[in-house]
Amino acid sequence: ETKKVFNFGSGPAKLPQPVLNQAQRELLDYDGIGISVLEMSHRTSDFSKIINSAETLLRELLNVPENYKILFLQGGGTGQFSAVPLNLIDLKEGRCADYIVTGTWSAKAAKEAEKYGKVNVVNPKADRYTGIPDSSSWSLNPSASYVYYCCNETVHGIEFNFIPDTKDVILVSDMSSNILSRPVDVSKFGLIFAGAQKNVGCAGVTIVIVREDLLGKALKECPTVFDYKVQAENNSLHNTPPCYSIYILKLVLEWIKNNGGADVMEKLSKQKSSLIYDIISSSNGFYSCPIDVTCQSRMNIPFRIGNIDGDQDLEKLFLEGASKLRMIQLKGHRSVGGIRASLYNAVTVEETQVLAAYMKEFVKKHQ
Ligand code: PMP
């Protein structure tokens, strides 16, 4: 038996153990049909059942209204940085869109959208991303085709715990790193997208939830594989979809359902993240998290050791010690450094407690 590893990676990230066990059991012979999902045509009734149940489960778990389509696409979150403007920037005349930029991922999305129209960043550019500028200071343009934001900035650890009020303008959100970690009122959005590889599966499939009446406005240069209307009309089977990733998604959604759904995921995420934030805030400055307390992420917790810019030697020591205890993928994103603990759905409270205990011990030794 392999020794237990504690995976705090930011994505691709830990999958629930029962999901991996089931995938292993079914790898060579899926459901008694004698072949693997890896070898199965996407046009078979067996695969139809897989993709349809992934959709049904998602609809149920997120309470997706009937007038929304659910698509399973390739190209990752990054693909959606292009697909969103390619499909939606022409909803209104003037081809402009508003972007709320609160970190790396919304900044990248805004930059990509500039290829297709006018992008208005509604908040002043920050030297350092440390929070969400007060919504009263946003300069929203009422004639924008949509307002875009990233619900959880994975690198900086900044999470929206409110839905921006955009009046009548369509709202678009990147939920790649916090989808299904809590309930969400889908009806407030024109479109939600999320790569699966953090909270709901493995890399390769990107979920798009889009309101039906927004389809059919794609720019003519929009690649067909990214045209939401074409994909919606074909049940995401315009071309070969990422079959195996959709199968893993289905297994994870079943696991979430069996474990109580979005409400329970939310409760657990609060419990897990509090364990770590409490240690940071009670460490008398030994650990520091640069993010405003009002928007600290439940999913990704970036922190420094020693001071706000980090004591490199201590941080190195921390990571080495963690790795000896088989706590892995804790290194901060290369653009910000430091440490980052990611606590997605599959990471358990017990695993988080092991990290918490190590953090406490480390303070004692090095204070
Ligand atoms: N959005 C967010 C919030 C992300 O965290 C990431 C990837 N970590 C992306 C988009 C980009 O996703 P991908 O690498 O699948 O293109």
Report on the architecture of this protein.
- This protein has 367 residues and is α/β, with parallel strands linked by helices.
- Helices cover 34% and strands 15% of the residues.
- It contains 9 helices and 14 strands.
- It has helices at 17-26, 45-61, 76-88, 104-113, 228-233, 243-258, 261-281, 312-324, 349-366, and strands at 6-7, 68-73, 96-99, 118-121, 146-150, 152-153, 158-159, 170-174, 191-195, 206-211, 287-288, 300-305, 327-328, 339-342.
- A 7-stranded mixed β-sheet has the order 2-10-9-8-5-3-4, with helices on both faces. Strands 11-12-14 form a 3-stranded antiparallel β-sheet.
- Helix 2 (45-61) packs across helix 6, helix 3 (76-88) packs across helix 4 (104-113) and helix 7 (261-281) packs parallel to helix 9 (349-366).
- It is globular and about 60 Å long.
- The chain starts with 5 loop residues before the first strand and ends with a helix.
